[in-house]
Every structure is written in C-alpha cells, then in structure tokens.
Amino acid sequence: MASAGFCKKVCVTGAGGFVASSLVKLLLSKGYFVHGTVRQPGNEKYDFLLKLEPSENLKLFKADLLNYESLYSAIVGCSAVFHVASPVEVVEPAVKGTTNVLKASLEAKVERVVFVSSISAVFMNPQLSKEKLIDESCWSDKEYCKKTEGHASFTRIFLLLMQNWYCYSKTEAESQALDFAKRTGLAVVTICPTLILGPVLQSTVANASSLILLKLLKGCESLENKQRWIVDVRDLADAILMAYEKPEAEGRYLCNAHSIKTQELVEKLRTLYPNYSYPKNYTEVDDYKRLSSEKLQSLGWRYRPLEETLVDSVESYKEAGFLESK
Ligand SMILES: NC(=O)c1ccc[n+]([C@@H]2O[C@H](COP(=O)([O-])OP(=O)(O)OC[C@H]3O[C@@H](n4cnc5c(N)ncnc54)[C@H](OP(=O)(O)O)[C@@H]3O)[C@@H](O)[C@H]2O)c1
Asked: Transmembrane stretches, by residue range (predicted)?
C-alpha cells in the first residue's frame, strides 16, 4: 500500500460531501493526486473544493453512482477508491451504486477500496443485549430495519438519516461489498462511523449530521436525552486513509470516539458558548449501549477531544453563516 508523500492517484466518490471533502483535503495535504466525483461539475457548491491546496492535484469528474461508465472513467488509473458518496433519498443508488463502484474498481485493478458504511449497519438489531459490547462482529438485522419505524427525532433531515431504509441500505451495501471482496479477491475495507461532527468546508448547505448540532445550538423546547456516539470528521478521514495505507487493514472497522448523553453534550456546548438558545427540557431514554473502536485503535488510530470537535464545528458554522437563521 501507499506511504504518504508521493503522488499516487486515488478516487473519492461524492467529493463535495461533508466527509468526502475533508478526506480530499487530507489526501491533497499528503501528496496524493485526487480524482473526485461530483454530479454537477461547474455548480458553485463545489467551488470550495477548487480552493483546496495544491489545487492542481485535484481533478473533478462528473459521475453518478448509477452510471457505471461515469464511475469507471473516474476510477481508471487510480490505486485506491474511497467510496464515500451516499444518497439520502432512495435505497437503490446506495446498493447498486456500491456494486458499480466495486465492479469498476475490479476492472480498473485498483489496489484497495475503502467503503464508508455506517454504525447504522451495525447496531439496529433486537438481538443485541445491553451487556454486549458492540464491535465488528455485530450487524444490523435487515428484516428488522425494514419492519421498524425510524427514530422520532427533532429535524426532518435527521429523521431521514435515521429512517430505517437508511439502516437497511447501509447494511445491504456493506454486506454486499464484503461479499464481493470474498468472491472476486478485490481488497475491500469498510469503516462504520458514528455521528460525524467537526468543521464543514462547504458554505452552501449543512449535511444531516451537522444539522443535529445546529439544532442543539438553535434550541428547542424538548429533547430525548439519548446516548450519542460521536466522531470528528478529521479523525474519520485519518481512519479512512489508514484503512488504505496500512497493509494489515482488513474487514470492517467501527469508528467512534465519544459516547455522551444529549444533555451532557448540551452542557458542554453551553460552557463553551453560553449565548445560544439550547433545548430546555429532556425526556429520559434508556438506550445505553457500549461500543468498541479497539480494532481501529490497534491500527494506530487516535482521536481528538470532544471540546475541540465542538469548537471547530461551531466556528465553521459561524463562518458558513449556518447559525444566522432558525
Ligand atoms: N454524517 C454522518 O453522521 C454519517 C454517519 C455515518 C455514516 N455516514 C456515511 O458517510 C458518508 C458521507 O456522509 P456525509 O455526511 O458526508 O454526506 P453528504 O455531505 O450528504 O454527502 C453525500 C454525497 O453523496 C453524493 N451522492 C448522493 N447521491 C449520489 C449519486 N446517486 N451519485 C453520486 N453521488 C451521490 C452527493 O453528491 P453531490 O454533491 O453530487 O450531490 C454528496 O457529495 C455516507 O456514505 C454516509 O452514509 C455519515
């Protein structure tokens, strides 16, 4: 696998997204030449990508996950593919799109594909007892995902993020990716992040997970005092790159840094930024579960303190103007 500092070509799908853009920034800083896929090249929402340095090492390709040829054009010639793009509208692009990315990667003979899955592919399973330490051996139950209602929550977008078709599609896409790897010999590593916070690079729209933090800052009457698992987008980008650069990386990796109750999270924010509105009341929820990222840590992964993630998130929202309106 690659070691940092020389110009290997790699492809990042959905380069304009929250996670993917942070990864593109990291890759460019490490000397990689990046092929980034976007659906609407020329759209001003990608302008921020063109400002990342060194800008001559980033090339944007028009590609849709459902269009094999467009993906192949972006992937051919690359040593690695980081498959980050995921639609929030329907299941098909998540599953079929992943298959397209894997087939194109196999045809283009890439060394390794790193697929960004989700904790949603891990813990949605009624068989998981409270005592069970959630690790890479755990899978969400696809039938259960399909049958159950999404978690009621406090933003429409978060509702979308947590609706169970999302759990279903991430579970299906990740398991198909690992099966594809077994069948074909293509090296595939998957990363399952929890709620991703941290600085946004875009200034047009906030992604679903940033909206969760924004909602806390803008306040609301009442909230469930749920357990939150949180990872910083920059630490996740490190994990994704490690999954490529470390030859010993294999299979899946849970990627979580902090476990905290919502009310405690709000109190941390209030200490750092006393002047925002913040939620007023909480209803208790008995949803405690233990989660382990030990496998990733044993690859050498480290994460930053939560306070740093919160401050850098809020400062980036201010800069993007996300905190200006309700
Ligand atoms: N955010 C979280 O808390 C969280 C937690 C766990 C896992 N994840 C996973 O992390 C990944 C990135 O999430 P994110 O928060 O960075 O999402 P995001 O900011 O909404 O970005 C999603 C990206 O997917 C692209 N996309 C959507 N449909 C596509 C299609 N049909 N063809 C090609 N590209 C398509 C979008 O491209 P355009 O720019 O062209 O619209 C966008 O760049 C996803 O796989 C998500 O499931 C996220």
From this structure: none
pTM above 0.85, yes or no: yes
147: left (phi over 0), alpha (psi -120 to 50) or beta: alpha
Q: 18 C-alpha vs ligand 1 centroid, how far in Å? A: 7
- Please give the structure tokens belonging to residue 260: 């905290």
pLDDT digit string, tens, across residues 12-25 = 999 999 999 999 99
CA distance 230 to 214: 15
Mutual orientation of helices 91-107 and 164-184 as an angle, nearest 10°?
Answer: 20
- DSSP, collapsed to helix, strand or coil, labels residue 92 as helix
Residues acting as catalytic residues:
170
Of all atoms in ligand 1, which is nearest to the CA of residue 120?
Answer: 6
For 196-225, write each residue's pLDDT tens digit: 999 999 988 889 999 999 999 998 888 999
Atom of ligand 1 nearest to the CA of 85: 24
Token pair belonging to 231: 């990872």
End-to-end CA distance of the chain: 46
Q: Are strands 112-116 and 80-83 parallel, antiparallel or unpaired?
A: parallel
What pLDDT does 152 receive? Answer: 40
| 36 C-beta closer than 6 A to ligand 1 | no
Ramachandran area for residue 150 (φ above 0: left; ψ -120 to 50: alpha; else beta): beta
| Beta carbon of 163 within 6 Å of any ligand 1 atom | no
Please tell me whether residue 215 adopts helix, strand or coil conformation.
helix
Spell out the domains of the chain, with CATH numbers in brackets.
Answer: 9-320 (3.40.50.720)
- Which secondary-structure segment (H or E) carries 316? helix 306-320
* Structure tokens given for 280: 């007023």
Record the tokens describing residue 272, joined without a space.
Answer: 């750092």
- Give the angle subtended at the CA of 184 by the CAs of 182 and 187, to the nearest 5°: 70
Tell me how crowded residue 20 is: count the other CB atoms within 10 A of its CB: 28
pLDDT bin (cut points 50, 70, 90) of residue 165 is confident
